[in-house]
Amino acid sequence: MRLRVLGILGVLSALLVAVVAGTLLASAGRELGQEVQINRVSALNRFAQLAYDATLDGDPSELQREMDRYSGLYGEGVLIRLPSATLASGGLGEDRPEVRAAVGQASLNLSNTTLPPLQPFGSGPAYISRAFGPASQVLGEAVLEVKLDAARQKLRERYFWVGLGSLLLWLVLLLAAARVTAWVLRPVHRLNAAAQELAAKGKTASLPEAGPPELRELSRTFSRMAQTVSDSMESQRQLIADTSHQLRNPVGALRLRLDLLQLKLRTPEEQQAAADVTAELGRVEDILDGVLRLASAEHRASEGAAAVPDPAPEIDPFTILQEETDRARPAAEAAGVRLELRGTPGARLACKPAELAHMVDELLGNALKYAPGSRVVVDLRSEGRAVSVLVSDGGPGLPAEERAAAASRFWRSPRHQGTPGTGLGMTIVERLAAANGGRLLLEENPGGGLLARLEFPAVSGAHKAEAGDD
Q1: Among 129, 236, 362, 412, which residue has the least CB neighbours within 10 Å?
Q2: What pLDDT, on a 0 to 100 scale, did the predictor assign at position 296?
């Protein structure tokens, strides 16, 4: 936006400078042209008077001497046609078409004492002419050659200085426009950055009040709104966490009473009903545990987005993947799943070990639950500036629209509604990945099934480790 505004202001200032420079140059051309014209018309009038006197006296010798003296001094030719003779100096003769035209016009008593507009890069002389004699009679004609080289040189010099001054003026205006544009747009950029920060982190710092009054008021309004939104989101997270925590006590008491009640039940129907209630109560406990874990993960995600000073350590994730894979092997064997671990040690990423273990455990649990009897592969890859942890299965997978919704709270595929679960696992994994600077990507497994990718930025040690392995 700044470049667009600066470009528009630059074009407008260039047009303004061009108009001013054009006006100055046109004025300079007129000034120099008028100066030459006044001087040469005065000389032409003098020669016309001398020619009239010479016609009356019958002696043109003095006139010829004046003409020769003038041509020697200025280098310009003079031609005067008397009734009895034609006098010339400076090599000017009627063999030139321009001179013949000037003489012919003057013979009709039509004076031409106006010079053409002065141009900096023109060439050739100009001619002015007039008749002389009494008011009712034309006795002869006088033609004066006007060489404009000196005036053109002066005009070119003025063009240079005006052009240089115009360039400097345009640069000054452009610099001023850049400062004004930065002053006006700086609050807009801050506001845009704060809006993005609010969308990503749920909180943002108060904006400084700078710039024009309208933008200062907008900054104050946005800061108040951002604080309100941040407080509301924090209150919502705290309410969910507190509510889930407080519900655990009555749920625990309910389970205790239910266990005591089961001791007094005698018929199979009563025991089955109590077992059903116990199963539902277990589901409620799972949901409460999931909500608490989600609240903790969202709190960590907000801390990570806000860059709270709690840096994650640099770790080699392969050890954690190995531990989680070994821990899941009994469940995998029970589900008929062939569990494989691929990749090699050496990759480095920044993540809290317990949170990475939690994420891998959730992904492995999902794979074992929804892809029984298939093959589940845990892989570690270094891909340029990223380190990826992949958990893939050979189960039915998810279509694209379901993969896009899988990380939403309490979302479950319509095909898995009968399978135990809370619909919070992928949400927790996504929040924990974000808290550690990574992201969760759900893709279609090339061999069929679902591929869950945890992608983290590689740290500097990754490249050194790879070099050491080579």
Answers
A1: 236
A2: 67
